[in-house]
């Protein structure tokens, strides 16, 4: 039976997103990855320090500038957390009882590669069935030139 909505497991995330990046070349303010990590290592996504270190590590791997880190562990289980980066954020919510973690990676500009952070987290949490949806955010002029990430004050009139 064919599975719909999931990409083959054998290919890396970078290979799977190549088609989307080539076909949809929109000029946007940011890229938002919605990452569903299914069939994760339950002990990994249950451990607060491991989850925190993993998100911080993903931000570093993507060469992001970390501004703040905040995490909370729920009782009896589950973790929510955010790594605020100068380029936007990485966030996670875990459901260890289901072996599932939901991750958002939002980056502004084109200096940071969010797919590097996504691949890092897929491997770190041992997800056997990940899915990634890429959204372009702030598509203001889809057919115009590239948008500057931080325009000057004079350019905003």
A few lines on this structure:
The protein has 157 residues and is α+β, with helices and mostly antiparallel strands.
Can you offer a commentary on this structure?
With 157 residues, this protein is of the alpha+beta class. It has a domain at 29-134: S-adenosylmethionine decarboxylase. The chain has helices at 13-23, 42-46, 48-61, 114-124; strands spanning 30-38, 66-73, 79-85, 88-95, 100-108, 129-137. Helix 3 (48-61) packs antiparallel against helix 4. The chain is elongated.
CATH architecture group name of the domain at 29-134: 4-Layer Sandwich
The level-1 CATH class of the domain at 29-134: Alpha Beta
Instruction: State the CATH topology of the domain at 29-134.
Output: S-adenosylmethionine decarboxylase
How many strand units? 6
Which residues sit in consecutive blocks of at least 5 with pLDDT less than 50? 1-10, 16-24
- Give the helix level as a range of percent: 25-40%
- Counting DSSP H or I runs of 4 or more residues, the number of helices is 4
Kindly list the characteristics that best describe this protein:
disordered N terminus; 157 residues; 4 helices; alpha+beta; 6 strands; six-stranded antiparallel β-sheet; S-adenosylmethionine decarboxylase
Topology record:
Blueprint: H1 13-23, E1 30-38, H2 42-46, H3 48-61, E2 66-73, E3 79-85, E4 88-95, E5 100-108, H4 114-124, E6 129-137
Helix pairs in contact: 3-4
